[in-house]
Amino acid sequence: MSAVPDIAGALGWARERIEQMDARVLLRHALACPASRLVAWPEQRLSDAEWAAFQHMVERRVAGEPVAYLIGEREFYGRSFSVTPAVLIPRPDTELLVELALAHFSAQPRLRVLDMGTGSGALAITLALELDAADVTALDRSREALWVAMANAARLGASVSFVQSDWFGSLGEERFQLIVANPPYIAAADPHLEEGDLRFEPRSALAAGASGLDDLAEIVGRSPQHLESGGWLFVEHGYDQAFAVRGLLADAGFASIASWKDLAGIERVSGGRWLGRG
Ligand code: GLN
Fold it and tell me: In the chain, N or C: fewer CB atoms in 10 Å?
């Protein structure tokens, strides 16, 4: 299409190349306008710059880049988080970790929370904003991820302490009442890593050794040294890892071990309570 189109024309052009829903999201971003304008004003002509920006985004989408990276944001638990290719794109499944934390700790007068491998900061920031009493620490090994998370915390008005640490490596002796983690848990040879959005996400946030359990094993195994007696650990894991993760929790001496299902009915989070070694 050589002439600069109107909104309806631009959407029609894009729909031949990418999903209709993605086309609408990208056009809204290119025009910096609410969704209602695309519907209410289909005959509005794009500027040259808007059309060029939109075409560029559609081409990148055709090449597979995730929409969240193209527009630089993704919603999680009702808030918009900035994302870059340095961080995993937050998933709705991970909201289950938030629900579990709220169910167990809403009534707590004071609460120390640790989010391990925070990425965009979605979990840590949501917990800081949803749990008034929470004093939240978030760690990540990646400095680039921490920059993204810190910017999100500042923009959303959340008070979170950020630490650069390879899992518990740089954390010292601190103990928490709640530890949450959405670590990498995909097997390194899993063909899904070469499909869809996953191709563009940081491999270090996705893959964890031959079975996908390397990081889960480290987190579960070392959490007892960082939990107060009576504290909880909740970890997200793969669709077929619940049994193995419950085993890791049992080996580490956790009590009240359980798994919880995600929106698709798949056991997606497992956890347990640390009652101290007596
Ligand atoms: N749930 C993600 C996926 O399978 C993986 C996230 C992770 O490894 N923590 O796409």
Answer: C
Same domain, 209 and 260: yes
Ligand 1 centroid to Cα of residue 272, in Å, is: 21
Per-residue confidence (pLDDT) for residue 263, from 0 to 100? 86
Ligand 1, pocket-test mutation among 236, 262, 268, most atoms within 8 A of CB: 236
Residue 270 belongs to a domain with what CATH number? 3.40.50.150
Is the minimum distance from the CB of 269 to ligand 1 under 6 angstroms? no
Rg (CA), the chain: 21
Residues 49 and 102 in one domain: no
Model pLDDT for residues 210-221, shown as the tens digit of each residue: 999 999 999 999
Percent of the chain with pLDDT over 90: 91
Ranges of the chain with pLDDT below 70: 1-2, 277-278
SS3 content of the chain, % helix, strand, coil (to 5): 45, 20, 35
Q: What are phi and psi of 78, to 5 degrees?
A: 85, 5
Angle between helices 122-130 and 143-156 (to 10 degrees): 30
User: In terms of domains, do 147 and 264 share one?
Assistant: yes
Q: Is residue 175 part of a domain?
A: yes
Is the CB of 134 inside a 6 Å radius of any atom of ligand 1?
Answer: no
Q: Is 199 in the pocket of ligand 1 (CB under 6 A)?
A: no
Quote the number of domains for the chain: 2
For residues 249 and 275, the answer to whether their CB atoms sit within 8 Å is: no
Joined together, the tokens standing for residue 102 give 């709220």
Q: Are residues 35 and 90 in the same domain?
A: no
Q: Which domain covers residue 19, as residue numbers?
A: 7-63
